[in-house]
Amino acid sequence: MNSDDVSVKIFKALGHPIRLKIVKFLLAEPQCVCVLHRSFDFSQANLSQHLRILREAGILESQKIGVEMHYSVKLKGIETLLTAMDMTVAEYFNTLDF
Question: HTH arsR-type domain location, by residue (predicted)?
Answer without folding.
Answer: 1-93
